[in-house]
Amino acid sequence: MKGRGFVVLGALLAALAIAGDAYAAHALPARVSEALVERFARGMHYLLLHGIALAALGTRLGSLAERLALGGIALGAIVFGFALALSVIWPVLPWTRFAPFGGGLLIVSWLFMGLAALLRTER
After folding, report:
1. Neighbour count for residue 5 (Cβ, 10 Å)
2. How confident is the model at residue 123 (pLDDT cuts 50, 70, 90)?
3. What is residue 98's three-state secondary structure?
4. Kind and range of the H or E run holding 117
5. Is the separation of the CB atoms in 102 and 73 below 8 Å?
6. Are the C-beta atoms of residues 11 and 37 closer than 8 Å to each other?
7. Residue 3: its pLDDT value, please?
8. How far apart are CA 69 and CA 65, in angstroms?
9. With the C-alpha atoms ordered 27, 28, 33, 39, is the resulting torsion angle positive or negative?
10. 20 vs 24: CA distance, rounded Å
11. Which residues of 18-56 are buried (b: 16+ CB within 10 A; e: fewer)?
12. Does the pTM exceed 0.70?
């Protein structure tokens, strides 16, 4: 994915996270337990933070390694955030089983992003 694609995806995730957080604050408390509201909100929190990161970093990518790292960050945030949210709003499947994969991918991808930036040679 090119830089502009990451910016668009980041903006979409951030907007979705804000809408989801409003849903968690206003509609969910009447339907599910406080613990599930918190789980849903945590998923939205991760989507928002990483959506902002995607939008900010998407225009500054200099290498293939940085693009791969940002792709991993995008995928990790989507998997983690949606696993938590779907486990609350559609609990018929064990969505939370996917959360550790998303979280692990986020950790590894952020470390890879740091390494790629450290090793980048300025042009």
Report:
1. 15
2. low
3. helix
4. helix 99-119
5. no
6. no
7. 79
8. 6
9. negative
10. 6
11. eebbebbeeebeeebeeebbebbbbbbbbbbbbbebbbe
12. yes
- 89 three-class SS: helix
Average pLDDT of the chain, as a whole number = 95
- Token pair listed for 44: 């939205």
Calpha distance 8→97 (Å, rounded): 28
Structure tokens at 73: 């960050």
- Helix or strand run (H / E) with residue 99: helix 99-119
- Non-local (6+) Cβ contacts of 47 within 8 A are 13, 14, 16, 17, 20, 77, 78, 81, 82
Nearest to 13 by CA among 44, 56, 37, 42: 44
Residue carrying structure tokens 């907007």: 15
Q: What is the pLDDT of residues 20-66, one digit of tens each?
A: 999 999 999 999 999 999 999 999 999 999 999 999 999 988 889 99
